[in-house]
Specification:
By secondary structure, the chain is of the alpha+beta class. The chain has helices at about 15-30, 30-50, 55-70, 70-85, 120-135, 155-175, 220-240, 255-280, 345-355; strands spanning about 85-90, 95-110, 115, 140-145, 145-150, 190-205, 245-250, 250-255, 290-295, 300-310, 315-320, 360-365, 380, 385.
Amino acid sequence: MAIHRTKSSQRNSPEVERLVADAISLAASGSQLEDRFWEERLTVRLMRLLKSQNQNVIDAALDQTFRINTVAFEVLADTAETLAESLRVEHEGQEWDVLLLAMPIVAHTRYQIPSGPLPVNIIESTAQALHSAIASTDTRIAIVPWLYSIDQMPHSHCQTRTLTEALAGAAISGKDVKLELRDMSETIAVLADPRFIIAALSAPSGSPIFRWQAEPPARQERGVSLIGWQNAMQEPIASLLPGCEFELLLPEAYFTNCRLADKHVRPLSIRAAVNFLESTLGILPAGLSCVVGAFGEEQADEYRISFSAKGSSEVMYGVIWPLYDRESVASDALNDLSDDESPIKKICDALHDAGVEDVFRHAMLFDPELCDDCGAPLFPDRSGEAVHAEMPEDAPTQQPLFH
């Protein structure tokens, strides 16, 4: 998805340079009047690229601004996401604001997390829960009849804009959602992963979309809306995900909730891995030893966590902790635990919470190597080598993967 870091090999074109220049100018603006000038120029350029499906230029501009000006990067990323996940359209003389919603379900299991077509009763329950707990009055909703895995979500701003446009018409007109869902990619089998229900929420332009935007007495705080949503959807989602434990996050804008769900699942992936190794190999968490290393070409794009039995140098399992656009780690702070918000601190806290006491941290940046034979990521051992994770020979032959 577009929430992930991009690594564009494209040489900077004039279109890229203009996008970068506009984003830097907007970031440096000192007044709302100037803001509006640069916002309009940036919006026009981005809309032209979105309509022509020219994602490469957007990615290259994001990559350049991320490297040279983090404030400009935030400006450019926020604008591109806004244009991809929201729009204003006219229908029968009335203007409507439309927002693409992601409704995350952060799940883990010992079996398999389902994805695929949504039953009619789940769609109806979702619509009812949205109207009763989340959406403001006078809103209209269109729900995609599919339970998405990460692998099946739109993977770019352009794809997201296309989906938003398709759902906008269905939401405003009240007609059925017409999408081609038969050729969805296969879902990778992992034991801790988010699932998403996607919808478009529309409201007459200028009126609130969410209950927490409304004026009293109709106003309802986000926390109250979340509790209402969770209570309403607990039973329908439990029937949809048998054998799974899950947490329902507040329905919100697409890109915000994609990032939030991915961040929620990272510590859960560590706990699921520890539980899996205990149930499969009989090794208690205190009997595990972990090695953590940062991986990336020029900067840390992810951390990889190796699991071994205490006293053994053999890496038998690995978990990846990805970093996202708004997360960065200085090269001299890859294993620094002094910052409570640093990724390495959160990883170590998650390992300790899961019962793993022996954690070794590398200070170096590893190359993001994959196995030449099977394409699996390599994981760091204690000596500083990136190696293949191999379960013991007597372990079950089919092993799930983890984030």
